[in-house]
Design brief:
Helices cover 29% and strands 16% of the residues. By secondary structure, it is an alpha/beta fold. The longest helix has 19 residues. It is an enzyme of class 1 (oxidoreductase). Keywords: 2Fe-2S, 4Fe-4S, Iron, Iron-sulfur, Metal-binding, Oxidoreductase, Repeat.
Length: 948
Amino acid sequence: MTFSRETDHGTPPALATGKSVTLTIDGQSVTMPEGTSIMRAASLLGGSIPKLCATDNVESFGSCRLCLVEVEGRNGYPASCTTPVAEGMVVRTQTERLKKLRRGVMELYISDHPLDCLTCAANGDCELQDQAGAVGLRDVRYGYDGATNMGQAKDQSNPYFDFDPSKCIVCSRCVRACEEVQGTFALTIENKGFESKVAPSQGEDFLGSECVSCGACVQACPTASLIEKKVVETGTPDRAVVTTCAYCGVGCTFRAEMRGEELVRMVPWKDGKANRGHSCVKGRFAWGYAQHKDRILKPMIRASVDEPWREVSWEKAIAHTASEFRRIQSQYGARSIGGITSSRCTNEETFLVQKLIRQGFGNNNVDTCARVCHSPTGYGLKTTFGTSAGTQDFDSVMEADVILVIGANPTDGHPVFASRLKKRLRQGAKLIVIDPRRIDLVRSPHVEAEHHLPLRPGTNVAMLTALAHVIVTEKLYDESFIRERCDWDEFADWAEFVSDPSRSPEAIEPLTGVMPDEVRAAARLYATGGNAAIYYGLGVTEHSQGSSTVMAIANLAMATGNIGREGVGVNPLRGQNNVQGACDMGSFPHEYSGYRHVSDDDTRRLFEQAWGVALDPEPGLRIPNMLDAATDGVFKGIFIQGEDILQSDPNTHHVAAGLSAMECVVVQDLFLNETANYAHIFLPGSTFLEKDGTFTNAERRVQRVRKVMAPLNGYADWEIVQLVANAMGLGWKYKHPSEIMEEISALTPTFAGVRYDRLDAEGSLQWPANDSAPQGTPTMHIDGFVRGKGKFVVTSYIPTDEKTGPRFPLLLTTGRILSHYNVGAQTRRTANTAWHPEDRLEIHPSDAENRGLKDGEWVTLRSRAGETTLRALITDRVAPGVVYTTFHHPETQANVVTTDFSDWATNCPEYKVTAVQVSASNGPSDWQQSYEEQARHSRRIDVAHAAE
């Protein structure tokens, strides 16, 4: 794709009214939706009215006066961006009088702008430059007075973009983008007239301000006032490729803008249906890890983890991998090896890994990180609704009247969706937050929750049952919906259960610590406030009662009739870019793609015919079972694609013991991650910029990933898996990922209509996409549940076995922060460390005072499983008795303290509830120091003695 700017129609589409008007623009008759601006109508007709302050990402503003037009029968010259079309209107966009007025306006802008176009980084990519040419400005009578901009120093504090106030034309586009698109309100206009200027609020520089570096202001700027440092360094791009972000589960679409083989910038694509032209700091700017010096580009092997790595050829590495797996199976049996798929890799690559294990290894020992985060979603929603995924698309939130967020922190974990959610809240929707912490959504500029229920970690089920108690006992449920769409007898049993006085808000207050009146008010709001939508995250699933909590959420939605239309539903906010896809592709030991059990004869026969082998009908091992079996001496080899289980899985000591006991650990990744410290074979992976394929986001949206540059390691990840498979004699012959998707579509009913040509033509498809839903399915369960009748499930509250006591009186919960992603392997290798250079332990002032702790000092965090040290952050965002930390930095190894307790149905680890004690410390623990030394020793590469 050659480089060109996306078409900017100047103003957003009009709100749909179903009515249209016909008018004449420059002699052409055109029919437009009622409410469309003249500017947008002219653009859609193929014309282009000059503009500076107008852009279709924000509402019209009408300040620059460059877009003046003549309207027959009207006095004056209205701004086309703020004037709606009307029936019979006759518009002229180019007359002698308009030319003169526009040149005069442009002259004033240029008179206050440095004329250094030849050396400006935006030369050739500057709207001011373009519009000066469009209005025919050839001479400026007013000389540029640099003194006007004296004292306005360039702000280079942000690691990704610069702000040069001397080039600012005060069009307010950046300010409006920060308000309307991002919802942070970090920018303002200071002073008046020629003295006016854009500035971060409170007089801060960009880095120190409330700015979240989403890039909306940079994208909106029509000059070089706000510009990416990479553009300044490299020059403007000359081609672009549309692809999908490889960070969180929102699945933002970007234009990867290139100069030759070098990526210059990632610009959010306005036609992206998940992000609608918005982005966050990670997707917009944090892609430099792809060229980081730490990246491993050559295969490596070693006989023992005590030895240094030796670089080898791809041929030798692949042959050695296949040989080792065959040796182990010959010696220990067919089920002695297994593998882990990646939620960061594409659907096609994930599908191939589970196929390698089932067809090549001959067992079902396959698991994925999706199980350690959202497997309760799959179990709970399949049980109650019949499908293992969320019910809505992201646009649906704009139709919600009440939004319940439980166990999720969207502004940090899913920031682009959070911006849309905040926009809906500013429009008047009401918010309920159920979370132990006071997350930003509870109270931030222009957004405040109606109710915050700061429950004690581990009491989700009790809280949701109390909400149900109020809804049932006050008869706020939707009886007609339940009788029509659900099993009434099951509802009656459930209603009797939740109505018991022992489950009232008053009765559960000692468990949850939440005021009963707040619980009752929240329940009434959810049940009676109109369209009510529930969004949840890992604070729901990563508990010993994760599956119960998901079913309790589904019970609430069914009881109130909040399923099957826009603005309602049950919506898991998935963590990684392809967590949904990894689940869809059959990454669990008990399921093939499409969530069909391996014991089902018809399903297994379908795969056996396609793959030409007999398949094991017995479910395989999950990750913790593999580790247990390894320490027992019966599981000896593992293939790990794009997953760092040593840092991400619970009880680090147990993971290390399991890996140490294996004879062949193969890691396929970008960097020598923590798990690779215990590996014997390292196969260098490729980034999302270097491959073709698809990702499936949290709203079931399947989107294309397109190769932007050649793989620096020589192969895309799917090609590496195919090399291993063929070395094991499987004879795969895929030439392109589109052929893999054809196989997925043939074997997976929900993907039957997913093909690359359709994705290219339509942008994306939401599964199920098949003959029954040829255009995909944005909203699930419209006329009925997939399983038939919705199933109410009684969810008893069973306290976790992880108990506080005199030795461990505090409860630790964990989460993410905006600037980093998962274990930080990618974001720590970018400038995002400017915002979060280390993990900190949040602790309430009263708990800190009781322990003699001060802000910023080292503290020891100790549990029954282990201990680590990190610096304290004293804050009232956490309640007394609760502490919180992130897990982005391996120096902390937060999971060394988390336990082996897990969800009763899926083994999803209980990351969110760990009994701990916090005490003063002098610095890193002995274990941390020994771990750092072990990691350094393990990562040695003996380049001089590469294997032959």
